[in-house]
User: Fold these one by one.
Assistant:
Number 1:
Amino acid sequence: MRHSETREPLVLYRPLYGDHGLWVRPFTMFTESLMVDGLLRPRFAFEHGGTAID
């Protein structure tokens, strides 16, 4: 999936909490790390056992 004007790679995902539907983020933002409590941690982590998108 790419942005229609910039051709930047995008990631389509569904949060595991709440009823928020689907979201899209730039690939670079999706895979970046953030400082949390003084530790550098990935913004997102793969969770096993999910279901396919309906």
Number 2:
Amino acid sequence: MEDQTFNELKKHISETYVSQAVDARKGQTKLFLELITKRKCPLKGWKNSSIELLLHELSLMDSNNFSHNAGVGEREARMYSDLVSRRHYGFGHGIGRSGELTEVQPKAAGIRNCSDCILVPMATGMSLVLCLMTIRKERPNAKYVLWPRIDQKSCFKCIITSGCSTL
């Protein structure tokens, strides 16, 4: 919430409660700022509510979620189900790119210090299988892939097809 919102709340509820809410909000903002500034996970884990608040706030920056916007471009996500939208914290993407692989993409900050990459012109599943198999050739003892989303079955199948196991 913005300072102006907190000031308006003082007209309706006790200043003490508003002050506590402001302090709590400042604590959340400090966590978010530290994460964004340091660009790495904090040593001490966050509460689920903090993680969800950050994801929600970031998703509000996604043009798919602008209240005044009705995205109709090919890169605009359209989610028919509110359940799916909530499951993904409001994040979504359509298909397509800006036409230039080296340009900043609408929903990807990119990595400026990347020196080499492989362009794999295939569907996600086959691309993942080939990439994982290539990594296994380079590192034959590597056998685990961290995959936190078992509901994405095609990616899960790719890991198994490549000869790896999920962790």
Number 3:
Amino acid sequence: MKKILLILADGFEEIEAVGTADILRRMKFEVTLAGLNARQATASHGTRVMADALLDEADPAEFAALVLPGGMPGAINLYNASRVEALLREFHRQGKVTAAICAAPMVLDKAGLLDHRRFTMYPDEALFRYLKPGHRPQPDMAVTDGTVITGKGPGATPAFASAIAAALGASDALIRGQIAGMFF
């Protein structure tokens, strides 16, 4: 199966990072959790997660998708990391999937990936100031526009992960089966 790189910056949202990774792993994708600055990242609510690798150790050529969880101050830490912005642009230039949820779509926008695209994100006016003028999110739980995928927030994690899986070629039956099994 295809490989996915998910970046953990201190202050990430637990559900969006671990939930997305878990759902995608259940669908047999190989997900690498990459710490932005350290092997251990502390989430927005204090949960500590050990990354599989440091971002600088990961070879972007190995991955079909790049995923950014939201959370605060995690999304700000991603937004301020020039190497994340450069990596997003490179993945996009190569036609690979780029995905962000909650506050993290602002990082996609900074990299120019939301120009002329539909997207969603956490509905907080304070976050919208990080967006380019005229860029406004849709109210949907998850939006796929080309190879760019966005999710609204923690409650959208199953829809967000499903959209990533679909973009990477997972069958509808596999996606429905995995998601249905979580909401018996």
Number 4:
Amino acid sequence: MLVAAVFELDAALGMFAAGILANAVLKEVKAEYAAEVMDKVEIVGFSFLISVFSVTSGVNFNLAPLRTLRPAAARGILSEVTASVRVTGALTVLIFPAAAKRLGR
């Protein structure tokens, strides 16, 4: 998010740019230190930063078109979105760190 703000990029592009910068920095340190840092970055990234990105994306979501729908339809759409965000968050927190460890990252 900081890289996105400094370089005035979209949040997704900012996260990608931050990854490129981190990759360049990690290539300059010893391999064991880089592996340890990457393990910690992946844990924080998968458990926290993806959730922050989802929240900031949701903050920028325009709800005005949903207000023109019938109230029942709008509630249904919002409840489906809420459910999908919860499922995605649970998968992110539970599955991805385990998969990363299994892959040796």
